[in-house]
Write a structure and sequence with these properties.
The protein has 236 residues and is α+β, with helices and mostly antiparallel strands. It has five helices and 13 strands.
């Protein structure tokens, strides 16, 4: 355990990979924090053996840390300071981002809701982690990524001319996106899909109504595309 009382004015750093949950019951995974990430305590529960509301500093994502995991955090030596990336620098790093997703795909994996540490990811977790692998932070969830990135005007009949390698493609039927993939060119994209609609792993799909069955299903849900032109820290 920590050798001091937790504080909401101290920035902490993860000393191990940590699961972050969507409620104080800690039943459903919301995201994961890899070793080295910084967090801030937002709220302590009254019960000594309950959970702690925390905010991950790099993407401002909030969730609940199990009290039994507080021995995995220690006061940070230095607070998190984002590196500011511009559009040109991001574009130059896209081949490395894509290479990361291929490596993840070629490693044994399955779809994990909330997964960001690997080898098991959810869709937006794969995208965020791929960009973080080159130092570029994006928001955590698909709908946040869609809102954050620069939207591309689309005509489904002209996708080959409108999309370029490294764009993000978004899917969903509601007001917000709930799935995201990374565009590879020639109507192909890489995406971590779940059991109910996909392959339960990272795979390559086609933006087409005449592709394989899973690709067709996602094509019907295709809603938008966007380019990454800034890193999350640019807006802090």
């Amino acid at each position: 355990m920590l050798d001091h009382q937790l504080s909401n004015v101290v920035e902490y750093q993860c000393q191990a990979n940590i699961n972050i949950y969507d409620s104080s019951e800690c039943n459903i995974l919301a995201t994961q924090a890899v070793i080295g990430r910084n967090l801030q305590v937002i709220q302590l529960q009254e019960k000594f053996d309950s959970a702690i509301l925390v905010k991950l500093q790099e993407d401002d994502y909030q969730g609940w840390l199990k009290y039994t995991d507080i021995d995995k955090i220690q006061p940070a030596q230095t607070p998190f300071q984002p590196h500011i990336f511009g559009e040109t620098e991001i574009r130059e790093k896209l081949p490395e981002v894509i290479a990361f997703t291929y490596k993840a795909m070629n490693t044994s994996n399955y779809y994990l809701w909330g997964g960001t540490v690997g080898p098991n990811y959810d869709c937006s977790g794969l995208i965020q982690t791929a960009f973080v692998s080159v130092g570029i932070w994006l928001p955590r969830d698909a709908y946040q990524q869609e809102a954050f990135c620069q939207k591309i005007s689309l005509d489904k009949c002209q996708l080959n001319n409108q999309l370029i390698v490294g764009n993000l493609v978004f899917f969903g039927t509601g007001e917000e996106a709930d799935n995201v993939g990374l565009y590879l060119g020639e109507r192909r994209y890489i995406h971590s899909s779940g059991k109910s609609q996909g392959r339960n792993c990272i795979g390559i799909y086609v933006l087409s109504e005449v592709g394989d069955e899973v690709s067709q299903r996602y094509y019907q849900l295709f809603r938008s595309a966007a380019r990454v032109v800034r890193s999350y820290g640019n807006t802090k």
